[in-house]
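Query structure, 267 tokens:
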């Protein structure tokens, strides 16, 4: 049964992702690749990589819940199997000792950062809240689940583990990975439900020591421009759902000229 519009603070991650409301991941795939790719995307990620991301989020945002368990040196043998069963039964995440220590170090680095630490200690905050709203222009349900929501300030925060958190490298990642569309979509969903949101801050932390941290924020112009693209995508989604066709939008055939970087000057 579809989830009704509302804000859910205790919804599990599994229940959130099981709903058919349009998500940020779907819209990003739609804009980055094509309607066909978005329609059939599985958004698969290696389990170890997924676990590290989830553990870093849990240790950073909700350390008091102790949702992550430190396991053995590797994932082999019955000892790991039994420990995994116990962790799953308790609703916790089991990591190898190496991965656990790495995630703990990243969480410490994030919490020690002046801006991130202040945000994490804000009283009027919500972690992993699930927001479902009706996008009235298209009549479609949309959803988002921000890592951190500073309710009174109307600000969203998102933890990103990365290889390079520097302004130049992560600045490229923002547009390469579609994080600008994520920020726009989250803002759109929150506003559709009646909340005042000024934007989203990305808390980038490097996976390797010394786990440098940097906060990245979109300018007002970039956010508004990205929201126009997201709005256009939502309208395209509505149209495609109505006619039941999801194509790449590519031409049947493309003729390519010699690219400029391969051309040589004539003497």
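Result returned for the query:
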């Amino acid at each position: 049964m579809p989830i009704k519009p509302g804000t859910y603070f205790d919804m599990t991650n599994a229940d959130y992702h099981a709903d058919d409301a349009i998500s940020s991941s779907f819209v990003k795939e739609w804009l980055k690749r094509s309607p066909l790719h978005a329609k059939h995307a599985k958004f698969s990620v290696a389990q170890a990589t997924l676990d590290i991301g989830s553990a870093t989020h849990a240790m950073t945002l909700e350390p008091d819940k102790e949702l992550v368990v430190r396991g053995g040196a590797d994932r082999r043998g019955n000892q790991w199997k039994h420990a995994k069963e116990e962790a799953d039964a308790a609703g916790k995440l089991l990591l190898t000792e190496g991965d656990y220590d790495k995630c703990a170090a990243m969480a410490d680095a994030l919490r020690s950062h002046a801006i991130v630490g202040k945000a994490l200690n804000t009283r009027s905050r919500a972690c992993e809240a699930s927001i479902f709203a009706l996008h009235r222009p298209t009549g479609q349900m949309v959803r988002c689940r921000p890592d951190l929501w500073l309710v009174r300030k109307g600000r969203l925060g998102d933890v990103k583990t990365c290889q390079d958190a520097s302004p130049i490298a992560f600045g490229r990642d923002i547009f390469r990975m579609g994080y600008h569309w994520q920020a726009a979509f989250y803002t759109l969903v929150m506003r559709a439900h009646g909340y005042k949101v000024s934007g989203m801050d990305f808390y980038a932390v490097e996976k390797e020591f010394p786990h440098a941290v940097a906060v990245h924020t979109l300018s007002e112009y970039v956010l508004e421009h990205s929201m126009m693209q997201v709005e256009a995508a939502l309208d395209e989604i509505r149209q495609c759902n109505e006619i039941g066709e999801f194509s790449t939008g590519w031409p049947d055939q493309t003729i390519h000229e010699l690219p400029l970087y391969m051309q040589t000057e004539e003497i």
